[in-house]
Amino acid sequence: MAINTISKALKLNNISINENVSKWIEQDIIVPDTKPDAIKIVNVTVTPYVNNIESMQDKIKVSGNINYFIIYKVDDQVFGTRGLFTSYPYSEIIEVKGATEEMIVNIKPVCKNVIFSLPNERKISVKSEIIFKTRLKKIENVDLINRFEVDNKIECKMCKNSFCNIMQDKKSIIASKEEFMLPKEAEDFYELLNVDAKIINTEYKESYNKVMIKGDIDIKMIYLAENQSENVKKVNYTLPFSAMVELENINDNSKFEINYIMQEFNLKLNPEITSTKTMTAEYQIEVNVVMFEEEEVEYIEDFYSQSRELNFDLLNVKGVRKTVNLNKNIELKESIANALLENSKLIDYRLDTSYIVPVVLQNNIKLEGEAKVTLLIQDLNNLELDSKTLDIIVNESYDLDNIANKNNIFVDISQERINITQSGQDLDIRIQLEVNTRVEEVKDINVISNIIDDDLDLTGLDSINIYIVKPGDTLWNIAKKYKTSVDKIVKTNDIIDPDAISVGQKILVIR
Fold first, then answer.
1. What are 229-257's pLDDT values in tens digits?
2. 458-511: which CATH number, 3.40.50.300, 3.40.30.10, 3.30.360.10, 3.10.350.10?
3. For position 261, what pLDDT does the model report?
């Protein structure tokens, strides 16, 4: 006969996997007929995007686009430098041990290394190392039994824990095509040389069954100008975005974790508008909204009956009890003398933090490696462009002493800022890193199911027994074995502390 129970249903984060997977992707880029021949490659910027993910056993299929911005030298008296933008699709299989089909996957790709060559004046060969920052989690649906609906007394071992109960995990896509006018100082725009687009200033506000999310896309453009005396310039533009994500049963206990990933971004001059310099931006942003509640639950971890045989299935499940996010701001300063040649100008700079490796110790996080800074420099004598990379040594650490019960620790540089000031040939570099440390406290949970009630077989069980305590024994296990109660053993043996029995101790057990 089945036993009726009262249960609490939970959706728990069962498994978290954070892994960075490296892939080299090669591409031959053909200079179009509308562009002049390439003499020398000055700089190549590679920006990967992921817009489709298929999770399989121990692997993930990722596909998307890779944008290439190439600055190259040409034989032209008017413009000695030209820019080339192109985008190519890709599809790759990345190995991630522990991945399964039902997992929720988020992937943020970054370019770590670029190797390029010029086989001939019409072909540019680019080989890029793409780091796929892969974050996976598995949601486990569990029913924890609170109590039984039976007349016969059942001995219950109760347990009380707090859990992150995931109410909803929803992905939403923000896609738009927008036009904007370049500011007046950029009216001399001729051709794009490079574009960098980042999501900034994100915030959200919950209302009745909706979460309003908004933020900005910070667009930095390096362009070739019609002005020959200053023919390479840069300009910034901020493009706002917003969306409403519909959720169910938002209440005062609801908490949210929201992540943004740029899946696609393209920018080009709109040739149809001739009165002003107008750009057309097409973008796609994936927003992952997790709504959860931190809930304390009392549940039955084990049980038995003194008069009936109760058999059941027992499944051990790992679930995240608590998540702590620690944000740490780290500032790096470096002054480099004679970093530039005489009579040269710093046009632009780009920061690469993929060479910074977090080392997780017991109570400490160490950041080791290099912050690579790529400079775009112009010789003011002949207006030619060149690029140069500087390595800024990183050796920083911070403590986790205020966070107890550390099980899973994941470290990620969530925001990065760089500012460089030129003084003649010298550079003053300031880097700000916002490092997010996510600490998950994981609990092993005994999930009970399929309870069957049967007649109790007392064969071999005497009414009075002398039991000698063995290693690993508890009063609960002893009472369950002899179909009695912990309270009865405690009273019979005048035990002061039920949790402090010792190996070799003799215990009188009366059924």
1. 668 999 999 999 999 999 988 988 899 99
2. 3.10.350.10
3. 95
